[in-house]
Amino acid sequence: MTETCTTSGGRRAPLPPAGEEAPRPAAVPAPRPGGAPASKAGAQAKPRDAFFDNAKYLAIVLVAMGHAWEPLRDGSRAAAALYITVYAFHMPAFIIISGYFSRSFDMRKDRLQRLITGIAVPYILFEVAYTLFKRWADEDPGYSISLTDPWYLTWFLLALFVWRLTTPLWKIVRWPLPLALTIAVLASVSPDIGDELDLQRVLQFLPFFVLGLCLKPRHFKLVRNKRARIAAVPVFACALVFAYWAAPRMNAAWFYHRDSAQELAAPWWSGAVMTLAMFGCSMVLVACFFAWIPGRTMWCTALGAGTLYGYLLHGFLAKGSRFWGWYDTYGWMHTPWGAVLLTLIAGTVVTLLCTPPVQRMFRFAMEPKMTWAFKKDPVGMARGRN
């Protein structure tokens, strides 16, 4: 892994949970004297990389499965071990991909517009929607809307908005990753940060985003080979064994990165130790996860374009199952076969929520064009007339 950020553009792909930034369109070569372009290759858009779409889809499936396992942890040590293992790498994987596809972000007008319509607007809409849902489903009419205190899954959109805005800064510093790790460590020992803007998560997850900014295609190729895939098997096996041992002994809140060490009833210095140790463990597991991701186009590849939809929409069902007491009412959910069935249901539901019909239905909220909200670009208009 490198500590110097690249400024080259990534391939075009949709926004979160992998939060990708659209690259600058390839320049069309100047016409020859006869009026024909010198080459048509520059005007052709780069194809999508199936590897990243597959990675995003499988990661969002793990997110949904993790939410399904959460209420089972108290009664099942195996469920707790799976939960801890998945939470150690699934969000870091998303964030690294988000950073990788943010490499081309600058303060250009079209990219700022995309930042607003693809991240800020969905954040506002779903923060309001989740709040209203909580009032109704949890019978909590006093719960108020707060755009500065994100609830449940919306924290990721707010964090991605902040990270994306800081991208130009990370491109100019000499050692971006060590600096980001230092900020994360300081945040983990600072209980006075509070809950505003979910800054603890923004700062503690920051190193993964900065790492994504610093990666190049060749770094992903290092883990996309047969030897890496074989090595990932014992590594994940050891992780599961350790998680099974640690489940009754460790506070799983460490994996959320939303609290300081003092808020987790731990000594302040443990925040620094845990931040660095968990970053290292997460990176090993993320590398193993990427090693298993197929690079060819598969039936699920197209679903990688809809991970934002699956991410935000499945949250209503995940929270509703708690509000309505499904895990307390239906005892079969706490049996081994019930846990397996819940896992399959979670994977199926989030898969359906990533499909094109759902994308078309909710595109008004996830990817609004909002041309009416922005001033027209006089330079672009002049080019269009010419």
UniProtKB/TrEMBL annotation:
It comes from the Bacteria. The keyword Nucleus does not apply. GO terms for molecular function: acyltransferase activity. Residues 1-42 are annotated as: Disordered. Residues 50-354 form the Acyltransferase domain. Keywords: Acyltransferase, Membrane, Transferase, Transmembrane, Transmembrane helix. InterPro entries: Acyl_transf_3_dom, Nod_factor_acetyltransferase. The keyword Acyltransferase applies. The chain crosses the membrane at residues 50-69, 81-102, 114-133, 145-163, 228-247, 267-292, 299-317, 337-358. This is Acyltransferase family protein. It comes from Streptomyces decoyicus.
